[in-house]
Amino acid sequence: MSTDAVGYSPFLGTYTPRLDDKGRLILPAKFRSQLASGLVVTRGQERCLFVFPMEEFRRMHDQIRQAPVTSKQARDYLRVFLSGAHDEVPDKQGRLSIPAPLRAYAGLDRDVAVIGAGTRVEIWDAAAWDAYLEEQITSYSETAEEVFPGAF
User: Fold this and answer.
1) Residues 111-135: pLDDT tens digits?
2) Where are the transmembrane segments (predicted)?
């Protein structure tokens, strides 16, 4: 994976590996170098899993912990986000073990979609990803200017 001047290379693309009988997933080859030294897998929104390189997870955690403890919304988010988090180091074959509670949360069985989402990787049940993408594709072109003013 190429990187720019500051060493950042976004995660891109969609891949369709399968979970093995032990709940392991072979990470796409393009993602392995950025995740090889360690990662955190946790609950994401829309019933998918987020996979962060350790450095990105630390950056996010630093941001999250700046939220006031007096905010119930911040406390709730922090609890859900961190209580499901597992730090892992992929094995020499680039496999990631996904804990059973996280597989259950995301409805992962055998067929999965692994997508690049910029600073993170997302792991979806393949059918759930297809349904989500189909639902979102309709509004995709309509929201570009609203979400990213002046970018297009």
Assistant:
1) 999 999 999 999 999 999 999 999 9
2) none
Condensed to tens digits (0 to 9), the pLDDT of residues 87-109 reads 999 999 999 999 999 999 999 99
What CATH number corresponds to the domain at position 33? 3.40.1550.20
Indicate the pTM of the whole model. Answer: 0.88
Q: Please state the length of the chain.
A: 152
User: Domain limits at 57?
Assistant: 14-142
Cβ atoms of 109 and 19 within 8 Å: the answer is: yes
Q: How far is CA 41 from CA 28, 34, 72, 145, 147, in A?
A: 15, 14, 24, 32, 27
Residue 152 has pLDDT above 90, yes or no: no
Residue 33: both structure tokens together: 């170098």
